[in-house]
Amino acid sequence: MSKSRKESGIVYLVGAGPGNLGLVTLRAKECIECAAVIVYDHLANPETLAWAGQAAELIYAGKRAGEHALNQQQINALLIAKAREGKEVVRLKGGDPFVFGRGAEEAKALADAGVSFEIVPGITSAIAGPAFAGIPVTSRAENSHVTFFTGHEDPSKATSAIDYAALAKLGGTQVMLMGVERIESIAREMMKHGVRQDLPVALVRWATTGRQETLTGTLKDIGRRVVDVGFDAPAVAVFGEVVALRENLNWYEKRPLSGKRIVVTRTRKQASALSERLRALGADVIELPTIRIEPPSDLREFAELVQEAHTYDWIVFTSPNGVEAFFELFFKLYDDAREIGAVKIAAIGPATAQRVKDFHLHVDLQPEEFVAEAVVREFQKQGMLENLRILIARAEKARDVLSNQLAKLGAIVDEAFAYRTVAETRDDTGARQRLLEEGADLITFTSSSTVENFLALGLPWPNQMQVASIGPITSKTAREHGLKVSIEAKRHDIEGLTEAIRRFYSIQPTDE
Q1: In the beta sheet, which residues pair with residue 67?
Q2: Does residue 298 sit in the same domain as residue 367?
Q3: What is the per-residue pLDDT for 421?
Q4: Of 244, 232, 277, 240, which Cα lies nearest the Cα of 145?
Q5: Residue 198 in contact with residue 187, Cβ under 8 Å?
Q6: Which residue in 6, 95, 230, 392 has the most C-beta neighbors within 10 A?
Q7: How far does CA 273 lie from the centroid of its chain?
Q8: CATH number at residue 167
């Protein structure tokens, strides 16, 4: 009796694209979000794993030169076994699963085992890499065709399977994947078969990511240039006249933060807002969350205050997290936003105000400065605070400046602890190891707790890594811990921090 698809599960062979998160397909993201098991490769951007559910089983099956976490037979057996447990399995592969990968072998193993599978194509680095280096693989003025080949062959083979004579005869643009460590011998073979020595060549390393580097030369000198600069894999090689077009079309490597590695320490959920802005400016971002948002220690007390929110004159929200926690609970208690009554709302910062507006409520008070002291000043402008009932929705262990000062002015203040920040212990993406191995130019802190929790990790401080702070309170905490703050945002939000970083590097002298 054959098992049903539900009983036997299904495997999705998913192309994760060339490394840039923006180039992952919507279908790939959908599969990752729904997967019970994800078996991922070395070249699949590990930040895609943040889309996985909390209960998803993550299994690294990466392959580097001379180092395999799992061999191919083990991977095939693993996919089959997990599917037969009735699970949805994602096999996450860099680029496209069927372009010089072993997706076809995995699909055949699944088919032979009677396991259902689906192929989810991905953008291959063979096209994306050159494009992000300003090299079109086809151009009407330069060529009429493009050829793709792999430079990665079994070293035990007596002869090469690459038909160099055919490549020489074909001409046009030729794109090679997985062969940078053999580029000198490959170039030598191409010249031996009649390809001219001065043919332009480009190597694009870590294509489409913030780590992208491009090395250009000719067929004759590219091997020497690779050795001279220590140009390592993974890289895509482009041979042909189209390489010369890079001089005018290079766009990706000329952005304001290109070549800068920046650490983002926000919560896993919130990191993307800052990361996306920095990546858009060319930065190589390492997302290293140091805090996680958890429910408050006394959820019952918080619920009672939320239930009585309509009895207050004002509710003050100090962060988007507080807004989300408050209304998530509010709408469990009530099914109508009008139950909040005639209470007025104050918010610190535009992001907090926007989260309030997302719930279709008006913000009555929003200071220009995004600090508690500015809220107090705005309240004083409103007139007498005597006996006004104010509810402050905030994090546990946050500064109590706001509640203390409002109480001194005669207000009756209650604090609703909406959430608490705890140290983030998971590191599914290997961000800590990357920081240890590669270092960074800059680390961003968006709250005092991100400072404290990053330092609590005990990681060695990379040489030359500077500090960027979202505002004076965070800067004060950093300095109290012996850190020098090089950048402080004038506008204390993500947009202001991004702009401060951009301006800082725009006025820094270059190494050239």
Answers
A1: 64
A2: yes
A3: 84
A4: 240
A5: no
A6: 95
A7: 10
A8: 3.30.950.10
